[in-house]
Amino acid sequence: MTLLEYINSEERGFFLPDMGTNGLFLTNYKAYDVYENPSKQLELAKIMDETFESDFIYSFCDGIIFCETLGLDILKSDYDFPSVLNHPITDIEILKKYEIPDPYKSGRMPVNLESLSLIANNIKKPLYVSIQGPFTLAVQLAGATHLLRSIITNPEFVEKLIEFTTETVRRYSVAVNKAGAKFISMSEPAAVTLNPERFDKYVVPNVEKIYDELTCWKSMHICGDTSYILDNMLSCNLDAVSLDQIMNYEDVKSRIPNDIVLIGNLDPIELLGRGKPEDIKKETIKLMKVMRENDNYLCAFGCNCLNDTPVKNLQSAIETGRMSYKELDRIEV
């Protein structure tokens, strides 16, 4: 079954929640309690599924796993995503000192693969996993300013670094797919800094190398205003594209081919993080009505939610987004 067939398998809306670290507040666990313990990963996934019933299951988001495995200094928060503190790979000679991680041996990667396998085998919903893309990983390793400047001053270094990050992401993505992931989203937020020509050079062919080896549904997410590179994103061999809340879907939907699913794009900050459940329901209904005529629409957040987003707000969005089409058609807004 394709992703498009799945979201049209019932006469209602389907919802893909991407809630980052929100589930920690439903347990007594801190972030690394979950990252380092597959049984806690499964427990958290089950609690999230019970609390926020949706159409996909997901692991505890682990976007920093590449940088941590490669030995970068990491700021480890108890209740939010870890973050990189330094960007050590600034030239080819330094890059030569690093080895591409083995997903089955390096760092926490084997533990995370075990966690994903447990979730996939114990919860009968498509497992969704977000993975950092190769260009964004290159930015993390070298620093945004240095990497973008090097595109002009040292293109050989940029190409070698992205070869390294592409192979790193490829190996891990294939392992995640084999562990049971049904839906993998390549997250490339740093690519919003590129013009269309450079996007085609540094993002498209490298993401394609990864997509070509995956047997699951494939998506790409980029934050910010991507209107100027949307066609470039769509040129990839993907099943879905996810866009930021800044994008107007009434304008965007005509640009999306019928066989590619458009995911999004409820505002996770002002609406979900600071709004009220009744406001969230109203805005979700508005968005669904705009997209109702499109079979290739999957309701979701525009990006990760704030880690302290109220549970009732998240539930309001998900429940409304999964509303039957008959009920939706009866509501006026």
Describe what you observe in this structure.
It is a single chain. The protein is α/β, with parallel strands linked by helices and 333 residues long. Helices cover 44% and strands 12% of the residues. The chain contains 16 helices and ten strands. The strands form two sheets. It has an eight-stranded parallel beta sheet with strand order 1-10-9-8-7-6-5-2. The two termini are 34 Å apart. The model has no long low-confidence stretch (mean pLDDT 95).
Strands of the widest sheet, in order across it, are: 1-10-9-8-7-6-5-2
Radius of gyration: 19 Å
Distance linking N and C termini: 34 Å
Please state the oligomeric state of the protein chains shown: single chain
Identify the overall geometry: globular
The major pleated sheet works out as:
8 strands, parallel
Helix content: 40-55%
Task: Give the percentage of residues in beta strands.
Answer: 5-15%
Please name the defining characteristics of this protein.
two-stranded antiparallel ribbon, alpha/beta, globular, 333 residues
Question: Would you kindly provide a brief summary of this structure?
Answer:
With 333 residues, this protein is α/β, with parallel strands linked by helices. It has 16 helices and ten strands. Strands 1-10-9-8-7-6-5-2 form an eight-stranded parallel β-sheet. A two-stranded antiparallel sheet has the order 3-4.
